[in-house]
């Protein structure tokens, strides 16, 4: 079985290099891999690469993930997150290959407080979310066999993410302000990659399992409580931080200015994945603890 992985150096792509390796012959590419081009901004080159490799499985871990910057670069976000996945899906359909793709809680508007399942109405409130939703829809419309895995708040030791940003800020500053009205589940890239490998293997055995699934770590938290957990656990590991324990101020999103709007309710219902694939999703704190140990070198 030949697997083509795109975006091998991202948070999820890096962990997929490890998790997919036992499933088949893995060819992992980055944007600038030579001699095979894997720039998702360049559809012709992408097509040439897929036709040359003739994979049984395409795993697309590449994406435009700069949420605020996307508001200023909507065309590039759409090229990478919507047009490239459409091209990959068309090629997968022609080859009879399975396409694995990742999407996000940001396809939803974040209203209410209930977790959303896969059939919930999508209504993105920023350019990144719009571009990711368009990518999902193109994949479904192509008719290719696919797994679309929607996750949230992904962190990894390698790459940039909220947890590592908080660690840096807490080392530099004495006071932090963190929004306390965005609720979701921080999800380790290694968990997402391992679930991907498991789901992919299951779909090979049972093609009717293909489709769209929500995949996050268990439990939920606010960004503020998440930041506090990162700070407390980093201290417990002996990491020196400047910020005072009572100086992490909770603030509403409405007073924390960012270019892109963010959904407040990012809760995803993962019941479908757990029951159909027989999987258990460990609590988010376990993933953050692992991240800290890796980042702090203990
Ligand atoms: N991060 C998160 O919180 C979440 C992410 N997701 C989704 O999960 C998937 C993986 O995300 P994650 O690993 O966190 O993202 P990262 O930002 O860590 O990695 C994205 C990768 O895509 C690559 N990339 C960007 N543009 C191009 C391009 N034009 N051509 C080729 N490669 C490109 C980047 O390469 P380079 O370094 O060269 O720019 C980078 O290696 C994405 O689909 C994302 O939408 C879903 C939910 C939450
Ligand atoms: C750094 C910082 C951020 N914030 C706020 C700003 C923002 O509203 C919220 C989240 O900020 P970030 O920019 O880190 O997170 P963001 O890049 O929006 O994270 C998202 O990335 C994409 C790729 C996804 O798919 C989502 O699941 C989600 O993980 O936290 C604070 O309140 N205080 C702070 O000190
Ligand atoms: Mg960000």
TrEMBL record:
Its EC number is 1.1.1.133. One of its GO terms (biological process) is dTDP-rhamnose biosynthetic process. Binds 1 Mg(2+) ion per monomer. NCBIfam families: PRK09987.1 (NF007440), rmlD (TIGR01214). The keyword Cell membrane does not apply. It catalyses: dTDP-beta-L-rhamnose + NADP(+) = dTDP-4-dehydro-beta-L-rhamnose + NADPH + H(+). One of its GO terms (molecular function) is dTDP-4-dehydrorhamnose reductase activity. Pfam families: RmlD_sub_bind. This is dTDP-4-dehydrorhamnose reductase. GO terms for cellular component: cytosol. Catalyzes the reduction of dTDP-6-deoxy-L-lyxo-4-hexulose to yield dTDP-L-rhamnose. Residues 1-294 form the RmlD-like substrate binding domain. Pathway: Carbohydrate biosynthesis; dTDP-L-rhamnose biosynthesis. Belongs to the dTDP-4-dehydrorhamnose reductase family. The keyword Oxidoreductase applies. Keywords: NADP, Oxidoreductase. The lineage of its organism: Bacteria, Pseudomonadati, Pseudomonadota, Betaproteobacteria, Burkholderiales. Its cofactor is Mg(2+).
């Amino acid at each position: 079985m030949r697997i083509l992985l795109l975006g091998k150096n991202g948070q999820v792509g890096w962990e997929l290099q490890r998790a997919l390796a036992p499933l088949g012959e893995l060819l992992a590419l980055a944007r600038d891999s030579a001699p095979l081009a894997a720039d998702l901004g360049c559809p012709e080159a992408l097509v040439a690469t897929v036709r040359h490799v003739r994979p049984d499985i395409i795993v697309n871990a590449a994406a435009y993930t700069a949420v605020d910057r996307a508001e200023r670069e909507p065309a590039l976000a759409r090229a990478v997150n919507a047009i490239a996945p459409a091209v990959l899906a068309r090629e997968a359909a022609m080859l009879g290959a399975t396409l694995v793709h990742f999407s996000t809680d940001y396809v939803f508007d974040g209203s209410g407080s209930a977790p959303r399942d896969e059939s919930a109405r999508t209504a993105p409130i920023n350019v990144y979310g719009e571009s990711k939703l368009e990518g999902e829809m193109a994949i479904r419309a192509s008719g290719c066999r696919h797994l679309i895995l929607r996750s949230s708040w992904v962190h990894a030791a390698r790459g940039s993410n909220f947890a590592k940003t908080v660690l840096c800020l807490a080392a530099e500053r004495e006071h932090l302000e963190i929004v306390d009205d965005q609720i979701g589940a921080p999800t380790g890239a290694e968990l997402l990659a391992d679930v991907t490998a498991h789901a992919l293997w299951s779909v090979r055995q049972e093609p009717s399992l293909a489709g769209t699934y929500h995949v996050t770590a268990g439990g939920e938290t606010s960004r503020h409580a998440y930041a506090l957990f990162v700070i407390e656990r980093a201290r417990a590991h002996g990491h020196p931080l400047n910020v005072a324990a009572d100086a992490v101020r909770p603030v509403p999103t409405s007073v924390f200015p960012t270019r892109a709007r963010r959904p407040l309710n990012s809760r995803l219902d993962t019941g479908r994945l757990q029951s159909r694939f027989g999987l258990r999703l460990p609590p988010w704190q376990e993933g953050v603890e692992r991240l800290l140990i890796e980042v702090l070198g203990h």
